[in-house]
Design a protein that fits this description.
80 residues, mainly alpha
Length: 80
């Protein structure tokens, strides 16, 4: 009876699919924004995001976050 409980003692399973998706999206946005802001000083002026503007920098930031989100979902997919 305790053998099964002891095997999973160090793990806390994420039960809700909504919670999993939220954590995946959060990880992608945080990592994507960190990468973009580290790259921003080296980017051309056109690719730099200006505050409260819709510009190419915002699109590039979104693209980086999207690629990371897809990578996270791919690595956490269920085996077939």
């Amino acid at each position: 009876m305790l053998a099964g409980a002891e095997a999973d003692l160090g793990r806390t399973p994420i039960k809700s699919k909504t919670t999993k998706n939220f954590l995946d999206a959060l990880a992608a946005v945080l990592a994507g924004n960190a990468i973009y802001y580290l790259l921003m000083p080296r980017l051309p002026a056109l690719a730099r995001h200006r505050l409260f503007k819709e510009d190419w920098g915002l699109l590039l930031d979104f693209a980086i976050c999207t690629v990371i989100f897809i990578a996270v979902k791919y690595t956490r997919r269920d085996p077939v």
